Amino acid sequence: MALFNPTRDQVRQFFCDTWQKSQNHQVLTPLELIASDWMQLHPEFHDALNHPEKSLQEDYTPERGNTNPFLHLSMHLSISEQISINQPPGIQAIAHQLSEKLGSEHEAQHRIMDSLGQVLWQAQRNGAGIDAEDYLEALRKLI
To answer: Is the pLDDT of residue 2 over 50?
Structure first.
């Protein structure tokens, strides 16, 4: 069974195409609708989404001082999916509690994103898969 594994260019094109469809009030797929909602909450990324000819080629690196809008939005989609299917088990309740504590689902997702980034970095550093228990433990510390 092959997993969905888009290239960097495919991911960027997905967000730019979805943004254009949203701006033109076209029908969106369920995934595009979720992506569009997150894009609306990030006006700082609208310029990149409006200019795919530039942003599709851009190297977004911390050293250059700019956030990668496509990585950020991809993480929102990933976290939204994790929460919707409660995988890893327990993330749904943690996300709900964190959203209530912070008064914002958006801010809760940004905190979850920081933890997800840390466990991804650790997994890459160790040449291993993500440790779901470490991820959930990091999230529990947020609530």
So the answer is: no
